[in-house]
Amino acid sequence: MDFFDSIIYGFQVTFQPINFLFCGAGVLVGTLVGVLPGIGPAGAMALLLPATFKFSSTSTIILLAGIYYGVQYGGSTTSILVKIPGEASSVMTCIDGHQMARQGRAGPALGIAAWGSFIAGTIANIGLMLVAIPLAHAALKLGPPEYFALMCTGLIIVTYLAQGSVLKAIMMGLVGIILGSIGLDLISGFPRFTFGINELTDGVGIVPLVMGLFGISEILENLEGSLEREVFKTRIKNLWPSLKDWMEAKWAIVRGSVIGFLLGVLPGGGAVIATFVAYAVEKKVSKDPEKFGKGAIEGVAGPESANNAAAGSSLIPLLSLGIPPNPIMAIFFSALIIHGIQPGPLLIRQHPDLFWGLVASLYLGNGLLLILNLPLIGIWIKVLEIPYKILFPMILLFCIIGVYSMNNLSFDLYVMLFFGVVGWVMRKFGYEGAPLILAFVLGPMLENALRQSLLISQGSFLIFFTRPISAVALGFAFLLLLTTLLPHFKKRRQQYERFKE
Amino acid sequence: MKTLDQTSSLFWLLVSILVFAESLRIGIGTFQNPGMGFMTLGASGILGILSLVLFLQAFLRKEHGRHKPLFAGTLWRRVLFVVLVLTVYARVMPILGYLITTFVLMTLLFGILEKKRMGCVSVYALGATLFTYLAFSKWLNCQFPQGLFGF
Fold first, then answer.
1. 8 A C-beta contact, residue A349 and residue A304
2. What is the pTM of this model?
């Protein structure tokens, strides 16, 4: 099949009734999850995963992808109208989006967020088609040492880009690797770290872990404090941005799309980082940086474009290398494994329906988001007004159902609760869950690649430094670690010099 | 934050020691043929070292002002109640079945913040229970425990 035949084939797959339905349901659920602070894309995907078991892998991935980029869109509504980011990737939208709403320009803010998301999503999708296939071909030449090095680099980047302490993020990555090793050893077939608990023989489930760390812990944190939130009351009008708005925002959308695409592809990157960088760039290149924070439309267009572009491009390393670059992609990875599909360089060749169906669904989903969500903005505002005292029991119940229906085991509920409490305490102590989740999924692959590499090299660690790709990747990771340590050493040296004086 | 970091670093140090010991017990193999404790030994070793670094960092850090207790000014009793209720729910659901236990759970959860209008709370709880039962059990074919009473 040539390129255009493949695209047409993809649309044929996507327009099958069940896939079309899943695409629409995914973007709607995603928008809902994005609008509601509390559950998050990882939790929502994990929640719906058990319900997809009787459907095909293609339908499942289309649904999950819809949720992911729907969340990016929905988060902007909450940011603009309530000044509470529905998702972490919408934090930057709060700054200028809410100011625009306060100035009576909620309509153009929501409109430009939607259009920016649509344009960026489409650009990322084109990039996905153009990059994923050559990268998958190149990846066929990679062996265990290269995979080990790439995964190490991905983990280091995730910890490097952590919002809090890098040291704590690395520690969480190590805890994730240890948790990922619970269960049967891949090579010897013997159980380890199961402490005699039969249910742990298959390892800790990704769904209870994600639900606990992200869903339950968030609810527990919210329950501790005041549950009141104020929705900014305004009449939403002029959802179509004016010509002046377009002129001001057009380059912000382009820059946001490019930044989002590039940061989404990088291991460890993702929508959150992309929005921060996009906002910083917009402020930097603006002729009038003082207007940022006071309702600049570029401050909405840039980050909103960046998060959607990153959502699309982060599929590239997963689909072509089989390496999830961020925790959300780790859920995708688990979903593919559950459906019997091994993500990696052979995925596109062996499952063209899945790859091209997904690509076409991204176009369709982006369009649906635009068509459905702008007219539905009133409904999302109503959803925002649902009191948390009604919302949180429902979210808890959905978490319970999602976790229980994976294996029909009460044990999974205990695991979810355990990690919920752990996640809640972790938040208090300043630890992040994202590196843990990514390392948890990458851990078994990382271990496999390490052990295979050492078997090939007969115990020599030099194998990682004599092969160019792994040497470059590990060198890059080492440099990153060094750049985090250098300021610390510099500070200590200055303190020492002052003390000497 | 200083005290919090010191406490958490000691906790992770303890975890790393336990995992390190268990890795040695299950066998680390050799470099030529790594065993199933090889990777975890390395991970726990690094975790232990980083825990010590975190502890020392926190120990040497100067902090001005008094440390605020972790749960001061928070409604932690509410959190404890929810965790306890969910634990009991996980234990009882396979015995009494989905419908009964979920109705009780939802009544308690809705009731946390709406103590005055118990009638409304019961209606919400019943609605949530029946809706999720129909949506997940009947339409999406998820299997819920039927319990002693067969429903």
1. no
2. 0.81
